[in-house]
Design goal:
Layout lengths: L9 E5 L2 E5 L1 H17 L1 H21 L4 H17 L10 H13 L17
Antiparallel strand pairs: 1-2
């Protein structure tokens, strides 16, 4: 785990790059939504239902329709309200730890059956 706070971030290698696990942050976002639902269940449900309807209309009306622009504006407002504008803070030494983890995982590595640099195939 390269980043421990304010939200834990895990980094895993994949065959073509890396995968960032930000589930701890998403957990906080879901709790924020749940708290808003507890305070005003109808308000949040209405907002999410309207967003869903706009998303369906956008799918039918095309990529430059009013529904797409309205959907995106409403989704952006919810992201701003519940997910800190969609940003994930990383502070101080945690920045270096994340960078180092990414650097280590993105170093070219031989594919199975491919010889390592300077070596013969196995």
């Amino acid at each position: 785990m390269p980043v421990t706070g304010p939200f834990r971030i895990y980094v895993d290698s994949t065959p073509t790059g890396v995968k960032l696990d930000v589930s701890h942050y998403l957990h906080a976002v879901l709790l924020s939504l749940a708290e808003a639902a507890a305070e005003d269940p109808e308000g949040l449900a209405d907002e999410l239902a309207a967003l869903g309807e706009l998303s369906q209309a956008a799918a039918h009306q095309g990529p430059d329709s009013h529904a797409v622009h309205e959907r995106d504006a409403r989704a952006d407002a919810l992201v701003a309200q519940f997910a800190d504008e969609g940003t994930l803070p990383v502070y101080g030494a945690q920045v270096g730890a994340l960078a180092e983890s990414l650097r280590k995982l993105t170093v070219p590595r031989p594919m199975p059956g491919q010889p390592a640099e300077g070596g013969a195939a196995a």
